[in-house]
Amino acid sequence: MSHPEEAAKFVANDERMHWHDKALWFVREKRDVSSKGIPEWEKLREYANNIKTHTMHKLDFYLEEFEKNATKKGIIVHWAKDAQEHNKIVHEILASHNVTKLVKSKSMLTEECHLNPYLESKGIEVIDTDLGERIVQLRKETPSHIVLPAIHLKKMDVSDTFHEHLGTEKGNDDPTYLTRAARASLREDFLTAQAGLTGVNFAISETGGIVVCTNEGNADMGASVPKLHIASMGIEKTIPRLKDLSVFTRLLARSATGQAITSYTSHYHGPVEGGEMHIVIVDNKRTPILADATYQKSLNCIRCGACMNTCPIYRRSGGHSYKYVIPGPIGSNLGAFRNPKEHKSLPFACTLCASCTNVCPVKIDLDSQLYAHRQDLAKKHLIDTKKAVAMKITSWVMDHPTLFNIGGKIMRKVIPMLPDSIIYSKANVWGKQRDIPKMPKNSFKELYKQRKDS
Ligand code: SF4
């Protein structure tokens, strides 16, 4: 199903849609206040952009340096060319340690690789330990946001889910009560799991260590209580030096939730005493992005979610409507690049307002990339026939100014006389949720001329 078809399901519940919109706008406003608290904010964004762009140009060097330094610290490094290889490596490590239960801290990469169902098919129980992730896992849903995975749910939904799966009191939707219930259940999982898996926010080449940023401390529990720690990272998570990290940590939490810093910024530079640490470095179709000058910058993403929080389409259509592991502007870019046929509607889920580009802490040109995708899709004949024909006609009319002016004049007179059955016919998809505005007497060009002459 296309994005508009999926979005229609979310939009059908008007109250929920407005609530979702407001909740995310609240986070966006917190981000604005927090970023304005740092006078050098724009400089930091520029640094981050430069560091990431430089790293991507020398990624082979930095990855090898990272592997060398991590190995020196006693970490076992693995390379996976795709999702299947990643899942196989993780399973082999777990199987060789007779692991039957794995606690996992939020990792979009493992979502991308569909690790949970793979391990479950091998008889290994996987528990997502981030609260939001745990809620969606219990509901057998996917995260609808990369930082706030359960933002599409209200507290009553969580109450019902916990009542069904954790045996909490029916109808009790007190957030403290529900959080305590989740914590008690997760504590049990941390103590009984034989292995922990975390994502990676930053992999530092110079030190061979990784950094994980969370607000709940769940990654720390998963990586420290069991003796076996596996970290899964995409190749793009690399940064050159330890001192580069401060640029990103100052940007990440402020962009994500408006916090000055995440509650936990944990460094892992080797296994726990008597334990084992593995890092799986995954490509999974990232190198073709790296090789493409137009889209390469999308690999600079630090997964803060700011582009989603600000996006007028995401806020009103919900993350699940994107049908790609990462929703919103960055997800639309990545999805359309990786599988243009399947995700051809995503670059059009955009008003090209550029709000995403303006908030992106690493200055990814998100709106320009979405615009470029539209052109690529047209060249590949992957856009809807009605849209392609309409665009051709529009382009032809706009290429002939006299015709455009005459057409405008006629339509301003004709449209008010047309019956609703024609104006709001199926051909006018815009009319589905909008009223056609009152036709002005004059065109913009005429008004401009009048004012200039007066
Ligand atoms: S594209 Fe930019 S704003 Fe969006 S998640 Fe990535 S870093 Fe954040």
Automatic annotation (TrEMBL):
GO molecular function: 4 iron, 4 sulfur cluster binding; metal ion binding
PANTHER family named in the record: LACTATE UTILIZATION PROTEIN B
Highest taxon above the source species: Bacteria
Assigned keywords, A-Z: 4Fe-4S, Electron transport, Iron, Iron-sulfur, Metal-binding, Repeat, Transport
GO annotation terms (biological process): lactate metabolic process
Protein name: 4Fe-4S ferredoxin-type domain-containing protein
Domain 4Fe-4S ferredoxin-type: 291-312, 341-369
